[in-house]
């Protein structure tokens, strides 16, 4: 199980398999009246879009840190598990990664209230439409989903900031 988990975390193929499975499954759930071949085609399109975004993000991070794109996933795993490397060169790469990620989170903080507000406006708009059109159940379900999703975004952001700050302190203590 441990190696399968690492394969899904490190391998682009493993992550592509997960995205494809989720895409096909969601299409089958939400568009059950379409032909199953369309589920596969749409799942493949979703997979290509997500994988291109992931490759570009890993390439950008590898440029900033100086590590290979495949090594970035291992470094992120070390951050999640609070593992400080013994090798000074690897610590320097990890320090650049932590600084880059914290900088990205801080830069994104400026736009976060606007994105959350826009999501709230969409939820309120759907509630109003649901109340006037008679399908209030779906509108309430969507509004609850948006509220939970926004709370999850804030929780994950706080968790990531705490992880990166803890790793920054640990790296400073190691020298």
Structure characterization notes:
By secondary structure, the chain is mainly α. 87% of the residues lie in helices and 0% in strands. The chain has seven helices and no strands. The protein has helices at residues 2-10, 12-30, 36-65, 69-80, 88-109, 112-133, 136-174. The longest helix has 39 residues, at 136-174. The mean pLDDT is 89.
List the helices and strands in order: HHHHHHH
What is the average per-residue confidence, as pLDDT, rounded to a whole number?
89
Q: Spans of 5+ residues with little confidence (pLDDT < 50)?
A: none
Number of alpha- plus pi-helical segments: 7
As a percent range, the share of helical residues equals over 70%
Overall geometric form: globular
Oligomeric organization of the protein chains: single chain
Based on CA atoms alone, the radius of gyration comes out at 20 Å
What is the CA–CA distance across the termini? Answer: 35 Å
| Biggest beta sheet attributes | none
Strand content: under 5%
Which structural class should the secondary elements be placed in?
A: mainly alpha
Number of strands: 0
Briefly say what this structure is.
The chain has helices spanning 2-10, 12-30, 36-65, 69-80, 88-109, 112-133, 136-174. It is mostly helical and 175 residues long.
